Amino acid sequence: MAIDKNGRKCDFNINKDFPVDIHRSEHYRQGTAFECHWHENFEILYFEQGEALIHCNSRPIHVGPGELIVINSNDLHYGESLSNQLVYYVIEFNLSFLHSNQLDLCQTKYVTPLVNNRILFRNQIDHNDELLSEIRYLIAEYYRQDLGYELAVKAYIYRILVLLLRLYGEKTISETEKERQRRTLDRLNPILEYIEYHYTEQLSLGRLAQMAAMSPHYFCRLFKTLTGKSPTEYINHLRLNKATLLLRETDLTITEIAVAVGFNDSNYFSRLFKKYKQVAPSQLLK
């Protein structure tokens, strides 16, 4: 997954002439499914197999087979696989392709507020047979690509949005609030990207706050509001996920792995690992 300088996901798969991308994602180990990021496109995650913990705007959501997660534009989110086999579909599209040249009630009442991110949906979607049916038809049309599939895909997206609007509409936000949220994300996301590439180094709160041009107190409070974790907790969480991968796939010792992911003390690493992963690192050694 590529991230731009502001921490947005770069949507290289999105066709500008038909801005819809649907793909199947499979993970065969527990741990990070995708890193913390945000994007302007609207996204739906449909889980087919396994369990996961998806964090949306600092709120953790447990999901399993047949469940959905809605990612509004600019929602900060990341995912963890809780299973050794996690399978889900990512349905991503730019809402602006719903616009038409005809200025009618549908445009002014629904499409324009959706495109401008002024209508937000609940992230967690409970099991809804009608909605799941539309999602499955949408995926099938996209993959078959029969004649006229673009029309069918667009029609299903309209139907899905209607169901979301009726059942899971959460709130509307003003242009001022939208802009404030956007500025906040623009300030924080370069820090998230920096942590991703420098997690093996000693990252102090003061250093990160200085990079964000904030006081340490304000930076820490804002960081926890958006991610649900303090900067230290977030960094340790990332390091432990990287360590899990090394434990399972390399022949490195526990001490070597601790150092490789940024811990100077292997005993502290082992205690922290057991605290968060509920298993000793020695039990995961290859």
From TrEMBL:
InterPro entries: AraC-bd, Homeodomain-like_sf, HTH-like, HTH_AraC, HTH_AraC-typ_CS, RmlC-like_jellyroll, Tscrpt_reg_AraC-type_HTH
Top-rank lineage group of the source organism: Bacteria
PROSITE patterns: HTH_ARAC_FAMILY_1 (PS00041), HTH_ARAC_FAMILY_2 (PS01124)
Record GO terms (molecular function): DNA-binding transcription factor activity; sequence-specific DNA binding
Keyword Transcription: yes
SUPFAM superfamilies on file: Homeodomain-like, Regulatory protein AraC
Keyword Cell cycle (UniProt): no
UniProtKB keywords: DNA-binding, Transcription, Transcription regulation
Annotated ranges, domain HTH araC/xylS-type: 189-286
Name of the protein this chain belongs to: AraC-like protein
Organism: Anaerospora hongkongensis
